[in-house]
Design brief:
This protein is an alpha+beta fold and 267 residues long. The chain has eleven helices and eleven strands. Helix 8 packs across helix 11. The protein starts with a strand and ends with a helix.
């Protein structure tokens, strides 16, 4: 179901909702956590935390893909045909022209700035400020730094995702770049390159990070022993598992479980 309008011509949604694809609209996506892939007419554009993507919705060929399962952020859908009579034009000039200028070359642009990050995070966290922050966001879009995001084709995207899903479906196994490249039927060099462009990190680091987040979920939601969780995730040495977990999660496995128990007892 479509969210109500934040302002005339503008809809705000968190990423728990799936924004509709409609022609004549601009999409503005902002990432606070995880990594989100946008599919825009043959190109796949990865959005990392503290980055904003502005795109013409007519270019969108599929809904965005969440790559880690921990994505957080928001989307604004802007109907430029309805901006002119609204308060927004008086506040920040011709917003419609600004959106069209920024997307004139490629149909999309990726932006970043400290001020833009602060504005978008406030919009997500403080519902009462969203209208004002929305107008402020449109005001500063053209002052933000334009960055070149990692691009890949749809074919490369599916190669990387299929390999990641294959490896994570067998968390007790230790996969190498060589074995996953063979699974994907591409060279090791090409596989490393396309995987990094899709997931933003090397294969080994991605798989280890995903395993540690899975371990954290098991620690919080079950009473299984740490050693059993470690074995399920391919660690036969509990000390190595604890070191890897602490490096990724910022706390020991026992502290993770204790913090969850404390939260529930105080809730």
């Amino acid at each position: 179901m479509r969210a109500p309008e934040l302002l005339p011509g503008i809809v705000f949604q968190t990423w728990e909702d799936v924004p509709p694809t409609e022609s004549g609209l601009f999409g503005i996506g902002f990432c606070t956590a995880g990594r989100r892939m946008y599919h825009l007419r043959g190109d796949c554009i990865a959005l990392a935390p503290e980055q904003l993507i502005l795109y013409r919705s007519s270019m969108q060929t599929a809904p965005p893909t969440h790559l880690t399962g921990r994505e957080q952020g928001c989307t604004l859908l802007v109907d430029i045909r309805r901006l002119a009579p609204s308060l927004i034009e008086a506040f920040c000039g011709d917003a419609a022209d600004s959106l069209q200028r920024l997307t004139a070359d490629n149909g999309f642009v990726v932006l970043t700035s400290e001020r833009l990050t602060e504005i978008m995070q406030t919009m997500i966290q403080d519902e009462s400020s969203r209208r004002l922050k929305c107008m402020e966001m449109l005001l500063v879009l053209e002052t933000a730094e334009q960055i070149t995001p990692p691009l890949c084709t749809e074919q490369e995207f599916h190669i990387a995702v299929s390999a990641a899903e294959f490896a994570l479906s067998q968390p007790q196994e230790h996969f190498t770049v060589r074995s996953l490249a063979a699974f994907a039927d591409v060279s090791q060099t090409r596989f490393k390159d396309l995987f990094a462009r899709v997931y933003g990190m090397p294969v080994y680091r991605f798989l280890r990070t995903q395993k540690m987040h899975l371990a954290a979920d098991l620690l919080r939601k079950t009473d299984r022993r740490v050693i059993d969780i470690a074995c399920e995730l391919g660690y036969d040495n509990p000390s190595k598992f604890a070191r890897a977990f602490t490096e990724i999660m910022g706390m020991t496995p026992s502290a993770c479980r204790a913090s969850d128990h404390l939260e529930h007892s105080c809730g």
